[in-house]
Amino acid sequence: MALGRLLEPKDFGLVGMVTAVIGVLNLFRDFGLSTATVQRTSLTDEQISALFWINMLVGAALGLLTLVTAPLVAGFYHEPRLVRVTAALAAGFIFNAAGVQHGALLQRQMRFTALAIIDIVSLLAGTIVGISMALMGYGYWALVGMALISPVVSSAGVWLAMAWIPGKPQKQAEIRSLIRFGGILTLNGLVVYIAYNLEKVLLGRFWGAAPLGVYGRAYQLVNIPTENLNSAAGVVAFAALSRLQNDPNRLKSYFLKAYSLVLALTVPITIVFALFADDLIFVLLGPKWKDAAPIFRLLAPTTLIFAMINPLWWLHYSIGMVGRSLKVASVISALVVVGYLIGLPYGPKGVAFAYSAVLSLWAIPHLAWCVRGTMISLKDILMAVSRPLFSSVVAGALAFCVQYSYGPSLSPLSRLLLGGLIVMGAYLVMLFYVMGQKQFYVDLLQALRQRSSVPENSLVTA
User: Fold this and answer.
1) Can you say whether residue 436 is alpha, beta or left, with left for phi > 0 and alpha for psi between -120 and 50 degrees?
2) Which residues contact 142 (CB under 8 A, 6 or more apart)?
């Protein structure tokens, strides 16, 4: 919100040009080894130390590669300023690599409070630096500074919290299976990243920095629920499901409860995004970002789609089905890229529409493929989706009627607050009482609260 008012769309677009390209390299920073550390039922200190040094070696190599490619990035976009931006962001690979295994060990030990504190502190540090630099007139360099400070603070935090010192790498440490597991995950992440970021590269190349900056802000805002709710729940769910991989009945129960909770939190947000896009953009970013509102509204369906499909990786990774996950990712990536190419001639709006349309059409086949052959059925998934979705549609219709009658006379902030309160109030009434889900969520939240401070072997039985 602050940087949106202090900086121009072209500032975000310039940095977005670089991050869309070198973000591909960012996928290799831990080579999937943090996930392998969490998923494996048993690990030795020698194995973890070996993984740490591999992460550091990969981070150094990626940083050097980024430096070498800086002129190529600038040449691709015909923007000389990107050479220094790319070179500066190269240091982030080293900072991130230093904390990969320490963070994975904290997750493996299910020390989520410590991880949350570290994430918040690193985010605040980066935000303070970014805003300070913007106020001092550094322009797009404020975004670069924010991007570098956060991983420095995060890596320092996980080292302090874990208090583990890696030993010398040992040749006899058996890590081949871990590297194989991590390699498949990395390839999966690469495929998905290309699919979900290629449109930014294409928009920057063919439409310029300002349109990319507008699209990028809308894209970032609409993905906040996915990136925060799904990823935060995923950290907990994946660690717990990995401990339950040999107990199918409990794993199914745990997955469906976590899946239902994520959906219950995300679906009404999708309705708010679609109905109140103009007011949200005005309140959060300011009037100069008004062109982002229609893009934001067109992208709103992706919030729901990702809430439905992203949690399936918890299931695949925890039970070792990384091959299936890679195949699924390859298909959805190909479909999304085709959508981008169709929408690109029509600019950011065309790309946003095509992106949402492809994901919406593919959602059900995607879910069916993901759960085939697992302890979860498509019926289980659709039942979990149907209740919050129907409740949100009814709540959204009520809010739309009220806004149509009284909204024009209100300020953007007042309309947003009124609409949000109506949606959330009607949604909770529908979900809890009409759909009869009140006791389910009350019991679930009580169970989470009661187990927040108990030992690991008790927590995973929730």
Assistant:
1) left
2) 3, 6, 7, 11, 129, 130, 131, 132, 133, 134
CA dihedral angle for residue 233, residue 236, residue 238, residue 243, rounded to 10 degrees: -150
Rounded Cα gap, residues 331 and 336, in angstroms: 9
- Rounded to 5 degrees, what angle do the CA atoms 397, 400, 403 make? 155
Is residue 453's pLDDT more than 50? no
Kindly report which listed range (2-16, 294-308, 415-429) carries the lowest average pLDDT score.
2-16
Whether the pLDDT of residue 113 is over 80: the answer is yes
pLDDT recorded at residue 458: 37
- Write down the pTM of the prediction: 0.69
Q: Which two tokens stand for residue 412?
A: 């953007």
DSSP type of residue 433: I
342 CB neighbour count, 10 Å cutoff:
15
Say which DSSP state 227 is in: I
Give the largest CA-CA distance in the chain: 73
Predicted pLDDT of residue 184: 80
For residue 245, pLDDT over 70 is answered with: yes
User: Sorting pLDDT into bands at 50, 70 and 90, what band is 461?
Assistant: very low
Report the residue count for the chain. Answer: 462
Tokens of 53: 């040094």
Q: How far apart are CA 31 and CA 57, in angstroms?
A: 11
CA distance 370 to 313: 9
Q: Where are the alpha helices (DSSP H) in 163-247?
A: 176-207, 209-222, 224-225, 231-243
| Among 189, 233, 228, residue whose Cα is nearest residue 325 | 189
CA distance 223 to 277: 14
Distance CA 222, CA 273 (A): 8
Please, which pLDDT band fits residue 51 given cuts at 50, 70 and 90?
Answer: confident
* Structure confidence at residue 448 as a pLDDT band (50, 70, 90): low
Residue 419 pLDDT exceeds 70: yes
Dihedral angle sign, alpha carbons of residues 279, 283, 289, 292: negative
Contact criterion met (CB below 8 Å) for 59 and 96? yes
Residue 174 scores a pLDDT above 50:
yes
Q: In the chain, count H helices and then E strands.
A: 23, 0
Report CA-CA distances (Å) from 250 to 37, 179, 256, 311, 319: 22, 29, 10, 17, 13
Residues 6+ apart with CB under 8 A from 457: none
Q: What is the mean pLDDT of the chain?
A: 84
Which is more confident, 414 or 238?
Answer: 414
